[in-house]
Structures are given as structure tokens and as C-alpha cells.
């Protein structure tokens, strides 16, 4: 359970309440901007960006392991896209805790499992991150498969500010700039776009059902 709930101030009215995860998920989907104002249960106001910059109350997720002395930097992020299956990365929703440790990049968050939510984390060896690219507040990472394959896996993270995106890449010593520039390799259909396509397909089917009933 989240410890804090926030109302979103929209003009002269408020909507919600929403917990931290939900608000950050809405920010990732661009449903909220960083400048939107939140109202806490005590009446205090802060922006979405203020909430993102604040540290999340402990504990964040189960199975936390490793010494805290190994943690070099911690970021609040969101998982945008994953291409490739060399490393199994859950489809994290909403807030993802991104921690740079001495030898791994650790992503922790929650994802849908059946009818509920499951929390998990994945550790990406820093040495396997061969390329990195910053696109405003987005960070693209290309990972080399552990089995020595030639096809790279791509992971895109939302860091919410260009400064945080650049700082994350600065902590990745083995990552070289992506040689393809801003164009990047061929990318699959993003998760969000897949959902939109599915929604359109359902709408088309409903229209066909209505038409057939009238005939």
C-alpha cells in the first residue's frame, strides 16, 4: 500500500486521489506534465516533478539484496520499450527504481501478473551495456547478449529530465555512444502502440457487429 495519496489540481477542481506509482505512470504516458500541481492529504502542494525528484519511502520492493555501499546512484525512471529477449525484463508499469551499483544496473518495479501485481527486479551487468544514447529525457541502452550473439537488445528508460538522463549515462563506463546517431536500429512496435492497435481492432469489430445486426 502506498503511504501517501494526492489529488491532482486541474483549474478550479481536483481529481483523484492517486498514489505515487499511479501519478508517475500518468507522467510516463504524458497524461500529466511535470508542472501539474498535486495536493497532499495535509493540504500541502507540490508539482509532479517535485514528487518524482523526492526519494520513495522504503521499502520499495521485495528481495532487496546487496550492500547499500555498492549503490553509486539511484534514479526514478519508467520503462518505455524493450526490444529483444536476451535478458528477461518484465514489462514494468509506472515507477521503476533504477540503481547503479558497482557492477550492475538494477531495475526494480511492478508489473501485471494474471489478475494482480507482482514486484520484481532485474540486474543488468554494466559490462554488457555496450551503447547508450540520450534523447532529451529518454535513455536508450543497447545490451550485448550473454551468449555471445550479435544482435543487441535495446532498453529505453524515461528519466523525466535531460539532466537525470545524462547523469545516468555518465555512470555507465563501458557504454559507447550509439554509432547510428539519432535514427537508431529498426525498432518493434512499442508496448503503448500495441495497446492502441488492439483498442482500434476491438472498436472495428464492435462497429461490424452493429452493422451486421441492422442487416
The CATH architecture category of the largest domain equals Roll
Separation of the first and last Cα atoms: 51 Å
Under CATH, the homologous superfamily of the largest domain reads Pleckstrin-homology domain (PH domain)/Phosphotyrosine-binding domain (PTB)
- Total count of strands: 12
* Radius of gyration, taken over Cα atoms and rounded to an integer in Å: 20 Å
Sheet with most strands: strand arrangement: 8-7-6-5-11-10-9-12
CATH topology of the largest domain: PH-domain like
Low-confidence stretches: 60-67, 183-204, 206-212
Anisotropy-based shape = elongated
Mean of residue pLDDT values: 76
Largest pleated sheet:
8 strands, mixed
> What percentage of amino acids are in beta strands?
35-45%
Order of helices and strands: EEHEEHEEEEEEEHEH
What class, by secondary structure content?
alpha+beta
Count of separate DSSP helical elements: 4
The proportion of residues forming helix, as a percent range, comes to 10-25%
Tally of individual domains: 2
CATH top level assignment of the largest domain: Mainly Beta
Write the layout of secondary structure elements.
Blueprint: E1 5-10, E2 13-19, H1 20-28, E3 37-40, E4 45-47, H2 48-53, E5 71-83, E6 93-101, E7 104-113, E8 116-125, E9 129-135, E10 138-143, E11 153-158, H3 162-170, E12 176-177, H4 191-213
Parallel strand pairs: 9-12
Antiparallel strand pairs: 1-2, 1-3, 3-4, 5-6, 5-11, 6-7, 7-8, 9-10, 10-11
Amino acid at each position: 500500500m502506498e503511504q501517501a495519496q494526492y489529488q491532482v489540481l486541474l483549474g478550479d477542481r481536483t481529481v483523484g486521489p492517486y498514489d505515487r506509482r499511479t501519478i508517475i505512470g500518468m507522467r510516463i504516458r504524458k497524461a500529466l506534465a511535470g508542472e501539474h500541481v498535486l495536493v497532499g492529504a495535509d493540504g500541502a502542494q507540490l508539482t509532479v516533478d517535485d514528487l518524482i525528484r523526492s526519494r520513495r519511502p522504503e521499502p520499495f520492493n521485495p528481495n532487496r539484496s546487496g550492500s547499500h555501499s555498492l549503490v553509486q546512484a539511484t534514479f526514478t525512471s519508467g520503462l518505455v520499450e524493450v526490444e529483444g529477449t536476451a535478458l528477461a525484463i518484465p514489462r514494468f508499469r509506472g515507477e521503476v527504481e533504477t540503481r547503479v551499483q558497482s557492477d550492475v544496473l538494477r531495475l526494480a518495479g511492478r508489473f501485471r501478473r494474471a489478475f494482480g501485481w507482482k514486484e520484481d527486479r532485474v540486474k543488468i551487468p554494466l559490462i554488457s551495456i555496450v551503447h547508450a544514447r540520450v534523447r532529451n529525457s529518454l535513455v536508450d541502452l543497447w545490451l550485448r547478449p550473454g551468449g555471445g550473439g550479435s544482435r543487441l537488445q535495446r532498453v529505453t528508460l524515461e528519466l523525466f529530465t535531460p539532466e537525470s538522463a545524462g547523469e545516468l549515462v555518465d555512470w555507465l563506463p563501458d557504454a559507447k555512444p550509439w554509432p547510428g546517431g539519432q535514427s537508431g536500429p529498426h525498432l518493434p512496435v512499442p508496448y503503448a502502440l500495441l495497446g492502441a492497435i488492439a483498442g482500434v481492432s476491438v472498436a472495428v469489430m464492435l462497429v461490424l457487429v452493429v452493422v451486421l445486426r441492422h442487416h
